[in-house]
# Entry
Amino acid sequence: MERAESFGLQVDARETTFSGHATEIARTEAKNGRRQFYVFGGDGTLNEVLNGVMENDRLISPDIELIYLTAGSSCDIAKLFPERTPITDDPRNAVSYLADVGKIECVKDGKEIVRYFLANSSIGVISRSIEVFNVKTTFQSFLKRLNIDVAALYAGLKNVFQFGNMTCCLTFDGQEFPERTIKNMTVFKCSYFGGGMNYGIPSTYDDGYL
# Structure
């Protein structure tokens, strides 16, 4: 706060207290005319704010900007962008990027929902492992302080043998694939995940491909 104010920025800080809170705050503020959102947190917080400022596949206002102040455990989304300004510098001097946004439509408890993402979206064991990774327990916090990769590996191993397989039908770029059994499916823009791990497939923030 003091650092931001030293740059002459007027700060209206909001602290999130539950899952989805950042989405609620961002949506309310965007509809009230706010156009710059400084997101202090990790990829999950940034994703929540993104979903708050999107409506019907568009930004609520075309001049909305998200400024990512990386303070999470992995911050993989930031690795998509070639020039990153140190968090201690004036954010107004940072390079701006126009990035692709992914969209997921699904059904949860009989209700159709839409989610937008900048990094990736998963269904299956990885999604469940991310939930475990983000749960604030004493042991998980200890592992994160020790090493992010170790914490991510622990969350994955804890779930991989407990998570059942799923039967699914896939259609990719108009091509239908035979029904198959899978444990996880991931669609991604950012090949990084879990801090230091990588899917091994090059990706960029604006090539129009998943």
Remarks:
- The longest helix spans residues 148-160.
